[in-house]
């Protein structure tokens, strides 16, 4: 039995979709905060169980009978390490044979501020003694292509990544890799640095948007504080704006670049190209 946490989230939903191609639906458990939002998963034959990162007591029942658990990191910045500990403790108590965690690329050395909670979680997993595998995700291409409508409206891509190269891949690429590792044998103790096959700068992203849209789109590199203010002005919560601007600065220091090609090796195909994702968003 494989339990996937955060299963109604964007990544979790895709992981279950990938797992359904590999194992019977009856062997998959979707652990979710809101059971009502998981009706489509239940309809596919997946077991749906209530579990909330903020309710430690909910995890014992959610993980009953689990052989493997995929902890998809919480989205509540500042609360994640504490929330993750509850799932790790419950997994240890349940005697799971493999505990997988979606961390961040090179969490132990990353210049990104968001890496701190991931590293803290990784350390706690190791200390727990639960057999584990770390799935360190690079950046999602969608993190940038979601801003294409704004770029088209304003004639520019804004950021503070400088000339930093970003080896991103799509959520579906990462989800496919997560599922592949969950069903594979002998994964305990492994660490996967997962990232896209090719890298680009934000100036190159702007050029690709311009090429496909036929509009004049440039890249405007701002100081981190100014970029954060831009994000807040367009409606993002301050905590999210802070994370994105800090991550751009981390990218300028090489924090989102990787050329190890582990992701494409795990999924057995090239990762989805930037041009493909840009095309889908423009359409």
From TrEMBL:
GO MF annotations in UniProt: NAD(P)H dehydrogenase (quinone) activity
The protein's enzyme class: oxidoreductase
SUPFAM superfamilies registered for this protein in UniProt: NAD(P)-binding Rossmann-fold domains (SSF51735)
Gene transcribed to yield this protein: qorB_2
Protein's UniProt name: Quinone oxidoreductase 2
Keywords, alphabetical: Oxidoreductase
One Pfam short name: NmrA
EC number of the protein: 1.6.5.2
Domain called NmrA-like: residue spans: 2-243
Stretches assigned to coiled coil: none
Organism lineage string: unclassified sequences, metagenomes, ecological metagenomes
């Amino acid at each position: 039995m494989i339990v996937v946490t955060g299963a109604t989230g964007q990544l979790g939903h895709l992981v279950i979709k990938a797992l359904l191609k590999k194992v019977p639906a009856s062997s998959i458990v979707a652990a979710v905060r809101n059971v009502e939002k998981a009706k489509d998963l239940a309809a596919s034959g997946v077991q749906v169980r209530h579990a909330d990162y903020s309710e430690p007591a909910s995890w014992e029942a959610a993980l009953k009978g689990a052989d493997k658990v995929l902890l998809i990191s919480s989205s509540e910045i500042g609360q994640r390490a504490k929330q993750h500990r509850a799932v790790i403790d419950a997994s240890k108590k349940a005697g799971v044979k493999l505990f997988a965690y979606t961390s961040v690329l090179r969490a132990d050395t990353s210049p990104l501020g968001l890496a701190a909670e991931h590293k803290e979680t990784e350390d706690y997993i190791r200390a727990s003694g639960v057999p584990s595998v770390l799935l360190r995700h690079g950046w999602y291409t969608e993190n940038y292509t979601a801003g294409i409508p704004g770029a088209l409206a304003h004639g520019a891509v804004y950021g503070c990544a400088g000339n930093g190269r970003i080896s991103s891949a799509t959520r579906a690429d990462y989800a496919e890799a997560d599922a592949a590792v969950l069903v594979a044998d002998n994964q305990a103790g492994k660490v996967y640095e997962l990232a896209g096959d090719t890298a680009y700068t934000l100036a190159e992203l702007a050029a690709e948007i311009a090429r496909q849209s036929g509009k004049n789109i440039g890249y405007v590199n701002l100081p981190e504080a100014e970029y954060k203010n831009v994000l807040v002005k367009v409606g993002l919560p301050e905590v999210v704006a802070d994370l994105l601007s800090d991550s751009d600065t981390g990218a300028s220091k090489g924090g989102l670049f990787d050329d190890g090609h582990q992701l494409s090796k795990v999924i057995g195909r090239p990762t989805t190209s930037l041009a493909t994702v840009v095309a889908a968003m423009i359409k």
